[in-house]
Amino acid sequence: MNFVLGIDGGGTSCRAALATADGTVVGRAKSGAANIRTDLTGARANIVVAARQAFVAAGQDPELIPQTPAILGLAGANVGTYRQQLEAILPFSISRVETDAEIALEGAVGSGDGAMAILGTGTVYMARKNGKSRAIGG
């Protein structure tokens, strides 16, 4: 069976969801902080822990991780080269790192126009109009 991982990481925690190719979520897990700007190595470790636990929660072998693509929405991905540094050291077959704000916007409004706010360890607002996204603060 083919899987895909969705990872949401911020300054407080990292959440992972393992889904089948048709989008059915089969396992979820949570681990520690995953802000790649403040602690790249620690964030990577917590991302891998959450991914492994999601596989276990789904009753699947975590050894499938290297064969599984992942999309990650992470705090700090919009700063410098942290995104590229992390993508180079992740164990997934394909790793697409986006900001946590971009992922939250997509989750909140889908592909249409709208806005959202993240009010957690950090704060960021993001809006999309006519297909163009922009962060407001953060």
Tell me about this structure.
There is one protein chain. The protein has 138 residues and is α/β, with parallel strands linked by helices. It has a single domain, classed as Nucleotidyltransferase, domain 5 (2-Layer Sandwich). Helices cover 26% and strands 36% of the residues. It is built from three helices and eight strands. It has helices at 40-57, 82-89, 100-109, and strands at 3-9, 14-20, 25-31, 70-74, 95-99, 114-119, 123-129, 132-136. The strands form two sheets. A five-stranded mixed β-sheet has the order 3-2-1-4-5. A three-stranded antiparallel β-sheet has the order 6-7-8, with helices on one face. Helix 2 (82-89) links the parallel strand 4 and strand 5 (95-99). The chain is globular.
Q: Could you give the count of β-strands?
A: 8
What is the name of the CATH superfamily?
Answer: ATPase, nucleotide binding domain
Strand order of the largest sheet: 3-2-1-4-5
Q: Which class in CATH terms?
A: Alpha Beta
Mean pLDDT: 94
Radius of gyration: 15 Å
Category from helices, strands and their pairing: alpha/beta
CATH architecture: 2-Layer Sandwich
Order of helices and strands: EEEHEHEHEEE
Q: What gap, in angstroms, lies between the N and C termini?
A: 39 Å
Report the total helices.
Answer: 3
Kindly summarize this structure in a few lines.
By secondary structure, the protein is of the alpha/beta class. It has helices spanning 40-57, 82-89, 100-109; strands at 3-9, 14-20, 25-31, 70-74, 95-99, 114-119, 123-129, 132-136. Helix 2 (82-89) links the parallel strand 4 (70-74) and strand 5.
